[in-house]
Amino acid sequence: RDGAFRWLDRGGLILGISTGAFYEHETVELDSGDVLVLYTDGLTEAMDGTGREFGNERLKTVVSDNRDLSAHQISNGILEAVNSHSGNSPQSDDQTLVVLKYR
Questions:
Q1: Which of 20, 24, 55, 73 can bridge 69 by disulfide, Cβ–Cβ 3.0-4.6 Å?
Q2: Is 17 exposed, middle or buried (0-12, 13-18, 19+ CB in 10 A)?
Q3: How far apart are the C-alpha atoms of 77 and 70, rounded to whole Å?
Q4: How far is it, in rounded angstroms, from Cα 99 to Cα 64?
Q5: How crowded is the C-beta side of 79, counted as CA atoms within 13 Å?
Q6: How is residue 100 annotated by DSSP?
Q7: Which pLDDT score is estimated for 13?
Q8: What is the mean pLDDT of each run of 10 residues along the chain (103 residues)?
Q9: Which CA distances in Å does 96 have to 38, 42, 61, 64?
Q10: 3-class DSSP state for residue 83?
């Protein structure tokens, strides 16, 4: 909510299922207005016509710029930014996105 950013990078898949996957546990406290974004690498690895990926930093910027909006509007903003970046380039991986906004 205040623009601070934290990657949740404990080991294991955060979003998805894999046989035999090992997961580490961590507790994160959310405050009112905080935003949690879960996504697959198909979003950040979406490429433009020159082969440049959308990337983590661009995702971070889109989330930060839209953090005062609703979760639905934030997710729409992310998808619009990824699609704009990719243009007519074919999608090469699945794209899954979950945005939660704590009230």
A1: 73
A2: exposed
A3: 10
A4: 13
A5: 13
A6: E
A7: 63
A8: 84 67 83 93 93 95 96 97 91 90 93
A9: 8, 7, 18, 19
A10: helix
